[in-house]
Amino acid sequence: MEEDVELNGVINRLKLSRNNDYVLQRKRAEEAEILIRTKLAWLPRNFTVPNIFLQPDKQSVIIQDGKNDNRTLVFVHHPRSAGGHVISCLNNVSYTKNMAMSPLMNSKNRLLWDTGNPDTVSFQNRINIHRGGYAFGVCEKLQQDCHYFTLFRDPLETMLSMYNHCVNVGTHEFCSILKSKFISRRDWIIENGGLMLNHFLYSSHLCVAQHSDSSTDVFKNPCWLQQKLKIDRLTETEKDHVANYIARNLRRWFSVIGLFEEFKESLSMFEYALGENLTKCPSKKESSLTFEEEIHMTNKAHLLSNEERTFDDNETFEDDIDMLRDDYYVQKALMPAYTIYSEAKRVFHFQRQILYNKMTKI
Q1: How far lies 178's CA from each of 111, 128, 157, 188, in Å?
Q2: What is the pTM of this model?
Q3: What is the edge-to-edge ordering of all strands in the sheet holding 129-132?
Q4: I need a labelling partner for 23 at 20 to 30 A (CA). Which of 15, 46, 225, 295 fits?
Q5: Does residue 279 contact residue 271 with C-beta atoms inside 8 Å?
Q6: For residue 52, what is the DSSP state?
């Protein structure tokens, strides 16, 4: 009898805890909605095709008997996530299928795209392919549904790769202002950990006034930097709300989601969902390395153990990837990105299982 009473007590406490968690989640969701309406009203995306794998009544583009001719593809390129291969494939699709393609959507081209006059809209509506780091949201101006797709990568690995790229190559526009050569990896990640959030929150309207006044000012202060400075003023709680809002909407905004860590499988999912060849397209890379070798070379420095690594006078143990992953301030800086990335991984695994189920029935 006493055991039954104790068991009932445990069950009631679990129910209460679950109810409290639900109430807390609802409260956070409501706070996020208020924040979006008051400070980030441009963030909701309405002209999207929801995740194809997670819609029971939605078939793959491939299966729709040629009904894919008028669709618009938008690849959102998160830096250092192997998106260059996808962009090369889309370039090939544009050429072989005579599908119009917009300029690569860096922040400057996105600003020009969004500030075009009404006479250019008819031309923009004829473009079927968009790609680039600031491509998210391009279809809001066109007011037509688009197939957004993207590759996500572990946020810490992304920032380490981005840091090394800026130090050694520096071709990305992100490297032009944020001088990674002068600070440690740890400080650079803490300062710029909101990179993924910035890509989702990018909006040209914040820069339109300056663009109208002086294009020189915009060149000196690119729109992405102006936006970063404004987003940095959000509180940690507000950033957490925004990240959770984005995570909740990933399956509604993106027709298919891929992972850098599961690159080949991601390309297969892209092909199934979008009906385009993204696995065997010719590459324009001059390097003789295979794609897998390039990925290996990119990550090699971060995967070495402490015993295998050597440090020069300018490098400290704080730059070790394991120590960075455990660092409180690094975790804090990357928390919004990990919130989004975790949900992206969850959606990816749903896609994987659904695709497997479909393929085994054929």
Answers
A1: 20, 33, 18, 8
A2: 0.80
A3: 129-132, 73-76, 147-152, 256-259
A4: 46
A5: yes
A6: S
